[in-house]
Write a structure and sequence with these properties.
Helix content: 40-55%
Number of strands: 4
Order of helices and strands: EHEHEHE
Largest sheet: 4 strands, parallel
Strand content: 15-25%
Strand order of the largest sheet: 3-2-1-4
Shape: globular
Distance between the termini: 37 Å
Length: 97
């Protein structure tokens, strides 16, 4: 499906697995470069590598614990630096009680 998103830049939080990873893959298949974050570095980097191999898009893994304001700010700064701009934000991070 062509949603006319080729060349856009996105950030997706909570993207090392599950819904966030699926959203990142869908964006990448549509021609979007994506910066992703999650708390665990290894699964995050694995997800980025897998999606990059499958789509040939830039997927920038940036470890961040979004419950910490400094990590959240750092994620946005690094994502902007990696992508040049941010067109789309998907806030998928969350935890249950």
């Amino acid at each position: 499906m062509d949603l006319g998103m080729t060349g856009k830049k996105a950030i997706v939080t909570g993207a090392s697995e599950g819904i966030g990873k699926a959203i990142t893959l869908a964006f990448a298949r549509e021609g979007v470069d994506v910066a992703i974050c999650a708390r665990r570095k290894e699964p995050l980097e694995q997800a980025a590598a897998e999606i990059t191999r499958a789509t040939n898009r830039q997927i920038a893994p940036i470890p961040a614990d979004l419950t910490k304001p400094a990590d959240a700010e750092n994620f946005i700064r690094q994502a902007h630096a990696a992508l040049g701009r941010i067109d789309i934000l998907v806030n998928n991070a969350g935890i249950g009680p």
